Amino acid sequence: MRAIDAGLLLCHECHQLNRLIDPDGQSCLRCGARIYPRRPNSLGRTWALLITAALLYLPANLLPIMTVRSLGQGKPDTIMSGVITLVQHGMLPIAAVVFVASIVVPTFKLLGIGLLLVSVQRRQRLSPRQRIFMFRFIEWIGRWSMLDIFVIAILVAVVNFGSLASVEAGFGAVAFASVVILTMLAALTFDPRLIWDNTETPEHHD
Questions:
Q1: Nearest alpha carbon to residue 141 among 82, 192, 187, 193
Q2: Tell me, what's the pLDDT at 111?
Q3: pTM listed for this prediction
């Protein structure tokens, strides 16, 4: 049984259980925070953030993310060309970490959140336990996508020796950071309680 079936609402601020009084929203009796049976416009907001992240995913991978100059020479690198360069220099473990954090994780997040949204809206016959596990995994791995951005920020701040050596961030880094932030926000705006709302009536596919 769901808490809403028992006429209860959980406050996400102080975790106080409140009696359901107003389906359109009410204030928590303990802390006064606004609480709702389900987050208002959760699906619409998540879709908007996800689509924006998907649009920025292309420039994030096609535009240069970083340019390393040594003695005045250097060429801009995209995420994938940087991975290839690391492989060519025999740094396979680092290349694997960058590939997973910058290519695999963002792609999985985009596809995973999209699958959750479609399964909830179309009430597909997917295991709710598998979907909630996927949602929790997406939330957990979200922070690791910022690995490239942290490395670039450190290199830009530390490696600045004029014409001898320097590191410059590219427009791809801005697009990639935007993708990471937008997917993290999409995971936050998605209400996981929606996963369990349709488990009782899987025969409807509206």
A1: 187
A2: 92
A3: 0.74
